[in-house]
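Posted in: Structural Biology > Protein-Ligand Complexes

Title: Requesting predicted complex, pyridoxal-5'-phosphate in pocket

I'd be grateful if someone could produce the 3D structure tokens for the following input. Sequence and ligand are given below.
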Amino acid sequence: MMTAIPTGLAGAVLSIDLGALQWNYRALAKKAGKAECGAAVKGDAYGLGLAPVCRALWDAGCRSFFVARPTEGGELREVLPQAIIYVLDGLAHGQSEYYAKNDLRPALISTEEAREWAAFGRQYGRTLPCALHVDTGINRIGFSMAELKGLLADDVLRAGLNIALLMSHFACADEPDHPLNKRQIARFAEAQALLADIPTSFSNSSGIFLSGKRPESLTRAGIAIYGGNPTPWKKNPMKPVATLAGTVMQVRSVNKGETVGYSATWKAKRDSRIAILGAGYKDGIPRHLSSRTQTGPAQVWIGGRRCPIVGRISMDMMGVDVTDVPASRVSRGAQAEIIGARVSVDEMAGWAGTICYELLTRLGSRYARVYSGAES
Ligand SMILES: *Cc1c(COP(=O)(O)O)cnc(C)c1O
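-- Reply #1 --
Done. Output follows.
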């Protein structure tokens, strides 16, 4: 466990609005229609904190959760004794006991795993529930269609499995016109036909917004719950959940012609005022944000307006050009919004040449964390 860092002693404060998180969950559940809305909470709930996030989701009505690693499942089990928990990694070799003890359902990805889980169940005296993960075209993990058919033709193996869910995962759901979506939808329908009465799960956040799918039983919403845009081609329908505020350590005057930061990459074109914030790459601020990005300069919100990040991001700090902000509005102890309602995670990630998933999951451990707003 992390030691809590008091707000006043932290270089930056990460505020997580659990009310907005619950709002997002409910909006996605509504959008999912008749399907149950499950939540992907892998990676410490996308960096925002497994326990508080999952408690808030449970209170908003979420009952099915997807983690990546079995240990994430074990951690979640302590928080939510009654939740249904699927482990997307599948079955870790020789670890069935851990899954059984924590009531975790492996999303099996191969015949080998299926055999191991079935054999364990026989020894345990109960056919334990699992999901079957079929790969319909992303080509990462899961049964191929041929392997799935092979498994279903094996009566002994089939009898040893309690298949609670048939699932697959989209490769390009955030690009509705990508031809792979149609192919994956067709293949999943084929798999579904082989396992007629088994509940299904297909959609991630963007998948929920994708048309042309067969109805499914359970969605697996992730990034949209945390405020990322599931529809990148249009305005984000979700509410921002995470706000990262960097504290101003010092405001310094830099004369025209002087440079800021390591390697002297940024040079003042006028006499300038530079605010130094207490957040750096150790805190998950991508060093790629350092002034000269392709789409940049990256900006933060400070003193009532957007100001560009200047110079290299250091381990523990970063510089912002606040020359255009009245001096009275930016002084030691002031806060700059690095991500939040004014500068979205998607926008900041774009400046860093990455996606909001990576930005969120890499946020460091040195922030003071403030959780607010959950309703139960
Ligand atoms: C991470 C993940 C999800 C959630 O995806 P988002 O794009 O964050 O909504 C769903 N299914 C699987 C298999 C995943 O790995």
